[in-house]
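Bumping my old thread because nobody answered last time. Still need a sequence for this structure:
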């Protein structure tokens, strides 16, 4: 049996990194008083397949199926729509209050797997609903940046753009189309298709010949209202004040269709990352809440890819506090004293010492070999003599020194070492 293409297993030797990352995320969210929400990994098809969403993600990449009751179901390709569905269904939006929620979980997209791109992948994200405010937008971007930078990841930059409101976006789309139409034959096949389906996505084509054609294309910024320009400027001023490295990128449009106004991505410039260099991204949405049956309120959110965060850490040699690291293993010299050794082990665990116990009935030598192979720094050895004298042997496997101490001194010893 083999795993499904585009999936991976988190094996015991890597799981501590995942646990560390998840704890890191929960801590930062708690600090900012953002509440955790958990929604199902599958939703009714319509939650994601909305009329206004013609993105590749929804039209080409979702896992859709009928359940045994004939209901049309979709595995979530992203967190936002399901979270909004839940917020609306549970009537959590109240006037005069900003709702701040975060989530962490698996998503499913039928994409071509490559480095940093999987068919099952994990995201954490935030959605803030109920206010449209430049300070709030800047705050959200700062939290996204904090989640990444506090891991120690360097060489990151926030790329931002302003997509304007529906009217300015439509006007810009028309202008871009009119500009590209005469050049149509020179566009890549993908961009040619997009000219009719979603011309804005041509802007972030990765194909150099498309980018060359776009050199003289009309600028988004000239289609944005004065009010939006002031709003965007305020976001940039706050980011500058709080030392967030950013670049305005007029070609950043993002892959989902629900965005309007500000959009952003946190990208890494670490060497060896490959083309999937967005650690996360997000933006403001004006109509998503009402489309999903809620009130007419605006929201803003982002999501970060956990696999990409771990890849960035790995490439920059960032080591995690090993949450599983064992400080001491309790070994027994023969099986008559296994129960007494077990008691010592339970006592250590009760007192927050990261202890392990060798449950095997293997000879002492094998137990010791296993502890050495697992890089455990200390072993406590218990034989008949130790039991009758209420002592233990404690051995430092790095220095190979061994001493006998009273059982009631173990805690002192372990805490001092
Ligand atoms: P997204 O840009 O599609 O946005 O995904 C956010 C992040 O998820 C990406 O930057 C990347 O790190 C990670 N990611 C996406 N696809 C994959 C994949 N196939 N394999 C590994 N990682 C992946 C959203 O999902 C929006 N819901 C973000 C948002 C929240 N906007 C507003 N609120």
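Sorry it took so long. Here it is:
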């Amino acid at each position: 049996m083999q795993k499904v293409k585009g999936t991976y297993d988190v094996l015991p030797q890597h799981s501590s990194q995942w646990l560390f990352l998840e704890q890191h995320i929960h801590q930062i969210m708690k600090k900012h008083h953002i509440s955790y929400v958990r929604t199902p990994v599958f939703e009714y098809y319509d939650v994601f397949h909305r009329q206004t969403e013609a993105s590749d993600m929804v039209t080409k990449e979702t896992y859709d199926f009928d359940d045994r009751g004939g209901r049309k179901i979709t595995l979530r390709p992203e967190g936002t729509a399901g979270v909004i569905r839940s917020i609306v269904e549970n009537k959590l939006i109240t006037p005069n209050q900003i709702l701040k929620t975060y989530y962490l979980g698996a998503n499913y997209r039928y994409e071509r797997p490559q480095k940093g791109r999987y068919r099952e992948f994990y995201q954490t994200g935030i959605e803030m609903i109920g206010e449209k405010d430049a300070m709030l937008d800047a705050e959200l971007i700062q939290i996204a940046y904090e989640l990444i930078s506090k891991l120690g990841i360097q060489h990151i930059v926030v790329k931002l753009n302003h997509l304007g409101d529906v009217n300015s976006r439509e006007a810009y789309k028309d202008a871009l189309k009119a500009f590209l139409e005469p050049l149509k034959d020179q566009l890549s096949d993908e961009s040619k298709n997009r000219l009719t389906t979603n011309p804005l996505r041509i802007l972030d084509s990765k194909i150099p010949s498309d980018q060359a054609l776009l050199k003289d294309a009309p600028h988004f910024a000239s289609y944005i209202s004065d009010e939006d320009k002031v709003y965007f400027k305020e976001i940039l001023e706050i980011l500058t004040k709080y030392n967030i490295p950013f670049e305005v990128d007029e070609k950043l449009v993002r892959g989902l269709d629900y965005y309007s106004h500000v959009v952003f991505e946190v990208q890494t410039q670490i060497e060896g990352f490959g083309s999937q260099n967005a650690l996360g991204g997000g933006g403001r949405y004006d109509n998503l809440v009402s489309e999903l049956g809620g009130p007419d309120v605006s929201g803003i959110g982002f999501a970060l890819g956990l696999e990409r965060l771990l890849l960035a850490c790995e490439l920059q040699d960032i080591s995690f506090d090993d949450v599983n690291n064992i400080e001491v293993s309790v070994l027994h010299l023969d099986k008559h004293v296994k129960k007494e050794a077990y008691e010592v082990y339970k006592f250590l665990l009760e007192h927050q010492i990261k202890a392990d116990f060798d449950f095997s009935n293997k000879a002492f030598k094998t137990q010791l070999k296993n502890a050495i192979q697992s890089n455990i720094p200390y072993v406590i050895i218990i034989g008949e003599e130790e039991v009758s004298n209420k002592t233990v042997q404690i051995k430092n496997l790095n220095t190979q020194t061994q001493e006998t101490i009273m059982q009631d001194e173990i805690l002192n010893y372990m805490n001092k070492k």
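The longest strand covers residues 99-108. Let me know if any region looks off to you.
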